[in-house]
Specification:
By secondary structure, the chain is mainly α. The protein contains 13 helices and no strands. The structure holds fe (ii) ion (2 copies). One of its GO terms (molecular function) is oxidoreductase activity.
């Protein structure tokens, strides 16, 4: 099912999920400066995830009825910085440090526990409602697919820049609005009878999914984290092609047609190419120029693995207990 390629890309402010997210929402809605204490906040909890995501969204499509000038408000940016410090230091503490880039990429190709991921579950046992939940979770990223990665373009040069832009050109439809991957995702949502509106399910999506998108924005918006961003991008491309292939199998087993498989089928082929370009041309060239950034590439890869594993655990635990993996709205 094709959806309008000129959708309205803005949404309402999110439902606060604790004092930090309430502080950001109140600031944007009423102009009241945030006084919530960030110290001691759960770095991977829903409250901090929603607070940070709301700050970041001002750099993407913004919110209906929120003045776009808030994007560069010193008050908002100072609060965001505190949230980012908590999130980034927890991410660094959660993953092993290292600088062997080739080894971490090779590890990604070997599955630690074969068959234990969400896409494996969907392929082998998933039901239609579970597949639709998966589509809802991922919509938080795919509605802005490849946008966070575009933020790194001005921070690269030479072959790394040229190659990353070549991948982004594909993600953004190669010059065709109807082939922009975010648009293919809206079409997928329409084909599965879901609301394809921009971030329409945000309030139902749990913290682990939001944290993945926040990581991308954090890496994209800070030049010092450019190597973490390309490490993350390469990791995502390496793991997407096999997981998209499993989702295609799940959809076919469940009787979904080509309008449902299209988005995933597109990623099976494209990402096998993107993986090589990211690994060899983007990461390779960046590290030829700035070898001291190897540890940050490793950090980007491992942070991605860590947050994706948390997402998988959240979803599979809920499904194995026979309940929804979405949050109550
Ligand atoms: Fe894509
Ligand atoms: Fe891709």
């Amino acid at each position: 099912m094709r959806t309008d390629v000129r959708p309205v890309l803005s949404c309402a402010l999110p439902r606060p999920r604790g004092p930090l997210s309430a502080a950001v929402v109140t600031l944007l809605r009423d102009g009241v400066p945030p006084s919530a204490d960030v110290t001691g906040a759960d770095p991977f909890g829903a409250d901090l995830a929603v607070a940070l995501h709301t700050c970041y969204e001002l750099h993407y499509q913004g919110f209906r009825d929120v003045d776009p000038d808030w994007e560069w408000s010193p008050e908002l940016l100072a609060f965001r910085r505190e949230l980012e410090r908590v999130f980034e230091s927890a991410l660094r503490a959660a993953v092993p440090a290292g600088d062997d880039v080739a080894a971490v990429f090779d590890e990604l190709l070997v599955e630690p526990v074969p068959g234990a991921g969400v896409s494996h579950f969907l392929r082998d046992h998933g039901e239609w409602w579970q597949f639709r939940e998966y589509v809802v979770h991922r919509s938080v990223y795919h509605h802005k697919e490849a946008d966070p990665h575009a933020l790194v373009i001005p921070r690269l040069s030479g072959r790394a820049k040229a190659a990353l832009v070549a991948v982004e050109f594909d993600e953004f439809g190669g010059g065709h609005a109807d082939r922009v991957h975010a648009q293919l995702y809206r079409d997928l949502m329409a084909a599965t009878d879901l609301d394809s509106g921009y971030l329409s399910y945000f309030d139902r999506v749990p913290a682990p999914v939001i944290a993945v998108v926040n990581m991308m924005s954090l890496f994209g918006l800070h030049r010092r984290l450019r190597a973490a961003m390309v490490g993350h991008f390469a990791a995502a491309e390496i793991t997407t092609a096999p997981s998209a292939a499993r989702i295609v199998k799940a959809i076919e087993r469940l009787g979904g047609g080509p309008d449902v498989t299209h988005f995933f089928a597109e990623h099976v082929e494209a990402d096998a190419v993107h993986e090589q370009v990211l690994r060899n041309d983007v990461v390779g060239d960046l590290l030829d120029r700035e070898p001291e950034l190897a540890a940050d590439v490793v950090f980007g890869v491992r942070a991605t693995e860590f947050l994706e594993a948390r997402f998988g655990e959240h979803v599979l635990t809920a499904w194995q207990e026979g309940r929804t993996s979405l949050s109550a709205s």
